């Protein structure tokens, strides 16, 4: 190859070869390539010779050469090489300065007439030459801009022309394909496979002057990213310059358009962004534009477009980095933190019902806000403080009703972690009034929660962001969570040990002993469990040894407590006879069924199938031998539990459901055949131990938190009830030759089991009882008379559920009210009695007697459900509520009249006032206008007018303040309803005037 590093004689020879019109272009390409690659490495003397000899010939070759639109042709490659050499020439050289105008005109000519690849290089040449020789080329700048504008104007025509060409080419290719298809002799292949794909047709088209640029998508994306970066730099500089010359600064509307457009441009980075320094620079440039905005423009832009920003974060999480950068800026942090926090708090209600991705973005936004408070406490602490009460205390009732309560607890954890490490006096002062209620709520939730949610609640309880001195009055609330933490994961145990050691180091023995007393046994047991050798966590063991040493032997006081002993009833164990090598042995079923039940949910498919077989064989033993005795009942219950767990396993679902149905049919048929019929008036239906155990366990199968698992369990229980109801209708005889008896006794026992489950402490198990009642009521094969006979029990159980529900009503509380309505409706469809009077109508006075006392309940949900029931009874009976309640008026109102309102709690006062308000709102009103009613109204008037200090006292707790507001509202409603008693109040002008 020719040497391009020394003499001008070589350059002249190269020019002659390149300018020879008769030379083959393929032979010119290596010469041009070598010149292009070596131009950057020439010394000063060489570059002078190079520029003086090659510059003008190259310009002439490019200017006089004809455009080529075949991409891979030698002519196109050679022209492209000439342009690259011109682009790489040093723009500051004297030769370039002298030829700048000619070079600029040539590049503009290429831009107008040549193909897309050469036009891109021409644009770069124009930009570089104009930037270096701006003074000499001032007149050519407008020509370049006009050329660019003409290109944009012609875009519409280009697109239309392109579409027309595409259509023509497609038609040609389709016609060609049809001709080829018709000429084929073998027509077995479908026509669809003979037509070329659109992509193949596009490849067959020639490259014409209006064809699109053939570039890879990655190259296009790189160019777009570079353009976006340049625009951000330019916009920021423009804002700075406009402010410097006191020009019109863009308003919020214009910057709002920039806000939306710029965030949409983040789609240029479809994958993760921010790790690369260049990408991080783009984000910094984007955030830097907001630094130049006036405060009121910044405020309006972000306030009006927060919803848009959150939606963009869902599509492009990298947008969060822009907001995070602004929040870390001392000048903008307070403003943006305030805007974002208000937006998030206003939408706190929907956090628990969002999809996982949306909830994750919302939590990240909250964490960014909390981070800004930790980073710049002087500016942002006062922004966060007013929202603390809603963020902390409102999260608990919202979590109770949410589809995903974990989101609210994660929010509180992020808040506690952010503000616990620094000095936030204003924040601590806002939390202190909430401390008692907060700890009580957490302890109540811990007692009901399970699994990960309980661990998270324990962590919240141990990391409340207040000083130890403020926790001293409520230290007993930390003891039970402390024990659970020591029994939890290593991270939880480490947190519990730190808390325990902090208390021991800073508090006296006399103060700690009463707090430790209720949990001493569990606490010491948890510490002893952590004292384990390697490979257990040695850090936890060392911390336990240190804590026990600081206790100074106080752990030995546990010896004076009564020992905890395991009690095993003296009963025959459940066993199965197995033969091994002609030797038969009775094998205890208890450990086998326990292991099989655990393996059903926590093992691979092979073990699950084996475990299911074990459980089937175990239950078959009880079908033969019965379940007499506590031990056998326990083993049978464990086996049934495992079988019901199997219905939620995909590969065992169908066979487990079928086996459970067959098992229940066998148990119930055997029970009906072996049981002697009792008197018709008897309410007791004794059953065998096996049937009793099975029936009592059925409600527990509905105690699931997962919706899908609950739906499956409901379907199984419903099918079992339908099978049981169908037994009495079948005429199929069993081995004894007698037809099965009527199964009402078993159904009544099952109803009693559901009612009993409604009185369980756990809300999840209460709801299992409610679901069971709903299933029995909605099962069409069960006669309405069955529901009527148990109506009072069902109503009492469901109302008891509403009265015992958690302080924060759960989301499924409406299902209890719906079940109550369904029971009454189904009972009303019962047939008439022998006297022709519908059975339900005859029982309505007794049902009203159960309901009327709940009108004055301290629970608002109970009062609302009772009023709905009375309205339903009125609709079914055709009587007014006043007529239904008239016989119970004294029993309802006398307890309200006889006790002064101020002697009762706020909740009870509200209940009594609401009951009277409801009675006065009836048409006609239920209460008689007398002195007792006047005294009650006077009390309500006094409560509505009283000052808060006179009713609340000191200290003022948040719940009492909320209850007082509800009490005032109830008093105003009562006074409004009482205005209907016009004649009576005409004699009391003073009271009426007030």
From TrEMBL:
Keywords: Coiled coil. One of its GO terms (cellular component) is SAGA complex. GO terms for biological process: DNA repair; regulation of DNA-templated transcription. InterPro entries: ARM-type_fold, DDR_Repair_Kinase, Tra1_central, Tra1_ring. Transmembrane segments: none annotated. It comes from the Eukaryota. Residues 160-181 have a biased composition (Basic and acidic residues). Residues 160-197 are annotated as: Disordered. The keyword Repressor does not apply. Residues 432-459 form a coiled coil. PANTHER family: ATAXIA TELANGIECTASIA MUTATED ATM -RELATED (PTHR11139), TRANSFORMATION_TRANSCRIPTION DOMAIN-ASSOCIATED PROTEIN (PTHR11139:SF1). This is Uncharacterized protein. It comes from Tulasnella calospora MUT 4182.
């Amino acid at each position: 190859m020719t040497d391009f590093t020394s003499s001008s004689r070589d350059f002249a020879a190269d020019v002659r070869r390149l300018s020879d019109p008769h030379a083959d272009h393929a032979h010119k390409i290596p010469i041009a390539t070598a010149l292009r690659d070596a131009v950057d490495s020439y010394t000063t003397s060489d570059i002078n010779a190079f520029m003086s000899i090659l510059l003008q010939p190259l310009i002439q070759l490019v200017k006089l050469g004809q455009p080529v639109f075949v991409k891979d042709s030698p002519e196109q490659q050679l022209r492209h090489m000439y342009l690259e050499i011109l682009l790489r020439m040093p723009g500051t050289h004297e030769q370039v300065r002298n030829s700048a105008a000619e070079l600029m005109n040539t590049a503009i000519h290429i831009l107008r007439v040549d193909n897309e690849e050469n036009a891109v290089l021409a644009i770069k040449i124009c930009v570089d030459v104009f930037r270096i020789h701006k003074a000499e080329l001032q007149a050519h700048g407008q020509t370049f801009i006009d050329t660019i504008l003409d290109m944009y104007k012609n875009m519409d025509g280009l697109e239309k022309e392109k579409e027309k060409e595409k259509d023509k080419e497609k038609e040609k290719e389709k016609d060609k394909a049809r001709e080829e298809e018709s000429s084929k002799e073998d027509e077995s292949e479908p026509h669809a496979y003979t037509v070329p794909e659109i992509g193949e047709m596009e490849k067959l088209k020639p490259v014409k002057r209006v064809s699109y640029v053939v570039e890879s998508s990655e190259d296009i994306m790189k160019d777009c990213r570079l353009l976006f970066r340049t625009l951000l730099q330019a916009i920021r500089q423009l804002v700075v310059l406009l402010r410097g010359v006191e020009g019109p600064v863009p308003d919020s509307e214009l910057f709002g358009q920039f806000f939306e457009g710029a965030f949409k441009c983040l789609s240029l980075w479809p994958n993760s962004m921010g790790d690369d320094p260049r990408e991080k620079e783009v984000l910094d440039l984007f955030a830097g534009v907001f630094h130049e905005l006036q405060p009121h423009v910044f405020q309006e832009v972000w306030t009006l477009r927060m919803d848009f920003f959150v939606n963009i974060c869902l599509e492009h999480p990298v947008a969060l980095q822009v907001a995070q950068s602004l929040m870390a800026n001392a000048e903008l942090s307070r403003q943006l933190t305030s805007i974002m926090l208000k937006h998030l708090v206003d939408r706190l209600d929907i956090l628990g019902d969002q999809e996982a991705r949306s909830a994750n973005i919302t939590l990240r936004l909250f964490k960014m806000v909390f981070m800004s408070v930790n980073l710049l406490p002087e500016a942002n602490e006062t922004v966060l403080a007013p929202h603390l009460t809603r963020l902390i205390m409102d999260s608990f009732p919202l979590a109770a009703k949410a589809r995903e309560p974990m989101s609210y607890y994660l929010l509180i954890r992020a808040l506690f972690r952010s503000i616990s490490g620094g000095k936030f006096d204003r924040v601590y002062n806002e939390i202190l009034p909430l401390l008692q209620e907060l700890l009580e709520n957490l302890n109540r939730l811990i007692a009901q929660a399970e699994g990960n949610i309980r661990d998270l609640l324990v962590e919240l309880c141990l990391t409340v962001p207040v000083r130890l001195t403020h926790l001293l009055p409520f230290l007993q609330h930390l003891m039970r969570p402390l024990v659970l933490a020591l029994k939890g994961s290593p991270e939880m145990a480490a947190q519990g040990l730190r808390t325990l050691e902090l208390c021991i180091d800073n508090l006296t023995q006399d103060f700690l002993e009463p707090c430790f007393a209720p949990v001493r046994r569990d606490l010491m047991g948890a510490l002893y469990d952590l004292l384990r050798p390697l490979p257990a966590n040695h850090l936890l063991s060392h911390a336990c040894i240190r804590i026990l040493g600081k206790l100074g032997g106080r752990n030995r006081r546990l010896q004076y407590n009564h020992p905890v002993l395991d009690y095993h009833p003296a009963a025959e164990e459940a066993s199965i006879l197995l033969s091994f090598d002609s030797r038969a042995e009775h094998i205890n079923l208890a450990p086998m069924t326990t292991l099989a039940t655990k393996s059903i949910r926590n093992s691979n498919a092979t073990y699950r199938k084996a475990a299911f077989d074990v459980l089937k064989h175990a239950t078959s033993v009880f079908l033969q031998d019965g379940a007499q005795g506590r031990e056998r009942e326990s083993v049978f219950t464990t086996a049934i539990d495992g079988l019901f767990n199997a219905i939620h396993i995909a590969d065992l679902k169908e066979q487990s459901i079928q086996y459970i149905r067959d098992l229940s049919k066998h148990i119930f048929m055997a029970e009906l055949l072996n049981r002697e019929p009792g008197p018709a008036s008897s309410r007791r239906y004794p059953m065998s131990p096996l049937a009793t155990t099975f029936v009592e366990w059925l409600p527990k199968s509905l105690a699931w938190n997962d919706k899908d698992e609950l739906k499956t369990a409901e379907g199984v229980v419903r099918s079992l009830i339908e099978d049981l109801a169908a037994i009495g209708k079948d005429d199929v005889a069993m081995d004894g030759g007698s037809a099965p008896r009527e199964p009402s006794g078993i159904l009544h026992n099952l109803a009693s089991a559901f009612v009993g489950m409604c009185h369980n402490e756990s809300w999840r198990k209460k709801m299992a009882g409610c679901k069971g009642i709903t299933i029995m009521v909605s099962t069409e094969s069960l006669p309405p008379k069955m529901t009527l006979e148990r109506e009072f029990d069902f109503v009492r159980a469901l109302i008891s559920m509403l009265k015992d529900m958690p302080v924060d009503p759960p989301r499924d509380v409406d299902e209890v009210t719906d079940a109550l309505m369904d029971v009454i409706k189904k009972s009303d469809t019962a047939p008439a009695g022998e006297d022709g009077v519908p059975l339900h109508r005859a029982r309505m006075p007794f049902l009203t007697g159960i309901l009327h006392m709940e009108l004055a309940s301290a629970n608002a949900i109970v009062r609302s459900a009772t009023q709905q029931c009375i309205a339903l009874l009125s609709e079914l009976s055709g009587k007014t509520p006043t007529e239904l309640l008239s016989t119970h008026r004294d029993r309802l109102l006398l307890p309200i009249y006889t006790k002064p309102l101020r002697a009762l709690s706020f909740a009870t006062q509200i209940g009594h006032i609401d009951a009277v308000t409801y009675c006065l709102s009836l048409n006609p009103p239920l209460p008689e206008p007398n002195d007792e009613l006047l005294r009650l109204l006077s009390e309500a008037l006094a409560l509505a007018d009283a000052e808060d200090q006179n009713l609340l006292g000191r200290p003022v707790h948040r719940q009492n303040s909320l209850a007082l507001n509800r009490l005032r509202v109830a008093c105003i409603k009562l006074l409004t309803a009482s205005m209907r008693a016009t004649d009576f109040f005409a004699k009391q002008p003073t009271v009426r005037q007030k």
